[in-house]
């Protein structure tokens, strides 16, 4: 990771944090602490990111994304961890799967689209499932998406 990538990501996440009403600019605003509490991460992790000292680890990134209401996919792409090509979205109206037309894939669909071998799918589902908000499980996602649609 380069300094420019960290700076670019920190600038993007700062805008997202401010847009969601966290006061991260005034010393006594409490926005960093409130965000850290809501995300369940250490305040130091938020401070280090905003001061461009370090990129959060994947678990911290997942928690921040959840607290901010940002898709983990966006966090991973903006942080430079992965590219849009590595995390493709199906095109609108694409047939098949519960995520068709929603711009979202179930974990099973993602595994198939990425070519994860059958003998490694269960491990893929467990690892990738860690990046889905806790109120959902990999198996519930298709049903929940159909109800929302």
TrEMBL record:
Domain of life the protein comes from: Bacteria
Compositionally biased tracts (Acidic residues): 83-94
Region (Disordered): 81-104
Domain HTH cro/C1-type: 35-75
Pfam family, any one: HTH_3
CDD domains reported in the protein's UniProt record: HTH_XRE (cd00093)
Protein name: Helix-turn-helix transcriptional regulator
Species for this entry: Streptomyces evansiae
């Amino acid at each position: 990771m380069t300094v420019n990538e960290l700076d670019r990501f920190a600038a993007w996440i700062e805008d997202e944090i401010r847009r969601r009403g966290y006061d991260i600019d005034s010393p006594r605003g409490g926005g960093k602490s409130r965000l850290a509490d809501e995300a369940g991460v250490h305040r130091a992790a938020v401070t280090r990111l905003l001061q461009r000292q370090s990129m959060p680890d994947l678990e911290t990134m997942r928690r921040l994304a959840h607290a901010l209401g940002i898709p983990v996919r966006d966090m991973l792409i903006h942080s430079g961890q992965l590219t849009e090509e590595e995390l493709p979205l199906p095109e609108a109206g694409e047939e098949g799967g519960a995520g068709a037309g929603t711009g979202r894939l179930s974990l099973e669909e993602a595994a198939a689209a990425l070519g994860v071998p059958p003998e490694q799918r269960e491990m893929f589902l467990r690892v990738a499932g860690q990046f889905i908000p806790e109120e959902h499980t990999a198996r519930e996602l298709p049903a929940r998406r159909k109800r929302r649609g």
